[in-house]
Amino acid sequence: MYQLQSIxxxxxxxVDSLMALFLEGGYLSNFLQSxxxxxxDIALSQSLTVLTTQLQLSRNHRVSFALFSGEGEELFYFExxxxxxxxxxxEQTEMSIQMIKNRVxxxxxxxxxxxxxxxxRGRLLDxxxxxxxxxxxxxxxxxxxxxVRMDRFSDYLGSLKEAYEASIEWSGNPQLYINELxxxxxxxxxxxxxxxxxxxxxxxxxxxxxxKLTAIALFLAIFTFGLxxxxxxxxxxxxxxxxxxxxTEVMNxxxxxxxxxxxxxxxxxxxxxxxxxxxxxxxxxxKTHEMAIxxxxxxxxxxxxxxxxxxxxxxxxxxDKSLVSLIYIDxxxxxxxxxxxxxxxxxxxxxxxxxxxxxxxxxxxxxxxxCMVSRLSGDEFAIVLTHAVAEEADELxxxxxxLFVGGYKSDQHxxxxxASMGIASYPEDGDTLKELIANADMAMYNAKRSGKNxxxxxxxxxxxxxxxxxxxxxxxxxxxxxxxxxxxxxxYTSADDRIRGFEVxxxxxxxxxxxxxxxxxxxxxxxxxxxxxxxxxxxETAFKSLPKVREIFGEECILSINISAAExxxxxxxxxxxxxxxxxxxxxxxxxxxxxxxxxxxxxxxxFDVLNGLQNAGFSIAIDDFGAGxxxxxxxxxxxxxKVKLDKVLTERVTDSEYAKLLPPLIxxxxxxxxxxxxxxIENPFQLQCLKEAGCDFFQGxxxxxxxxxxxxxxxxxxxxxxxx
Length: 725
Fold this sequence. Notes:
By secondary structure, the chain is of the alpha/beta class.
């Protein structure tokens, strides 16, 4: 009966857990705020499915959820069961109607008339505040209920009833049985279950139990007598001589410690104290050494142990003429994990990764040894591999890359991270540990810039690229923007072929390095903190050029300027742009700010505050390279966005005959959110015509023009205007 009561409470608690998780997760508010549609119902159904999965309910459990309006109208019903035509039960409907009618804010009901039993939990909430309903007009309320079928409870109750040929009684009070067998358990404050077994069923088991207990008592009596005789001999006479002998050996350094005595006598206790004393001294010495060489979070060898081990294997490799490879591992987007999921999730990621890396090298350790993985600091790991064939380092690196395909998963989280790795090998890439570390680090950064989640071997080309990157980094710190930077303008048109605006692009002609493409120097500027100065120069120069552009192309012409996602988390950029707009008397909607789609990785409250502030200040917001980044399509509704710019690759794909049918719905989805659509990368009139027919708003690409300087715009426009006429 206690087991039955435990099963009941465990299954019944799942209803409360479902209700709590559902209300805390914001699913109800999202449902009520969304427009009625099949998508809204599907989204809520998927959320409920996830909740039941999180509670680890068996798939055999029938779980249902019902939502009623204050007038008693069924708004939504969800059921997880094997019946595809399942409908809401009469008990669940009746409970919901009664709660609305009587304004009961919370109710709980157990239906036991038929097996299997079901538990229903209901809430009556304010439709707006989603708090217990205290109002007078039930139209302002919403009623929801969860029902879970008590399969395990019902099955176990049935098995008890069958095994004991018992009768079952449900009552509001516990039953007392003095002269007959029976037992009551409390399932809820007003619900008790009583089982009365058939006495004839218990006669034989009780007789067998009595015989067993008598036999056990006899055995224990004999055993106790023999044990007492043995203890007197073992723990009084023999231990004194043994302790004296072992202490003499320890004092003469013939052994590390005396044996641990199991004797509970005074001699045994004294022996234990000596053993504990010697053991504590050795343990403290060992623990001190382990702490010095072990990472406290992951349990891997730390940087100190890494240096110690690496020097040892390099010295051995020099004697044996073998290869040693250093695989330097750095996690990509680890800061995003800490910022978005919290430092506990970041620690969880590091611990699971440490286990996976240790698992990958375990076969190598078992076969021949000569391999160690360590955590150097933060999200940086290193693997030292002694091997005979060069390809073995590649195989191990590929195994690490495979851990991050599609992201990285632990028991509790999915992490949108990857790993960039650099490999440097002795003796080809360096003779000393210092050289190997520097070259592996250089190769790792090359892998990170080349696309992430893969590895690179150190090479002369990588070293040259690293020197070039360092030169660019140093040049950006000392650059005079007006002398080396320039702006070019790439026009775009509307459906009537009129010039509607220009995308402003930066160009750099370095006296030392020549022409450097934005794709090369902008990421370096963002990583080193130099981009703020470049951003300010671009905006001020572009703002100055707006009057001349409008003099040529009309007062409705606007400028689209790229803004770094790294700048969006600071209100300084908002204040600076507002000040420039006021200084150069720029009209509202004359400047459009373009964000790359990777902006989704820096979505924080501060970022959205800046974006909303920019919109309120009269700037338009556009998402650039849409379709090539990380933003789910429907997340556009979360962005304060006026326009999206389809990426060149997406433009090319959706204008192909095989995918052309996807283009109109894509554009229509944006229009439904009052978001204009610009297609980038248009190369030919055929693509242009497809995009016009699909309802695209603006068009940009080399079909129209390549980027031009401000002086080239006027001559180009004369030719374009003549062609247009």
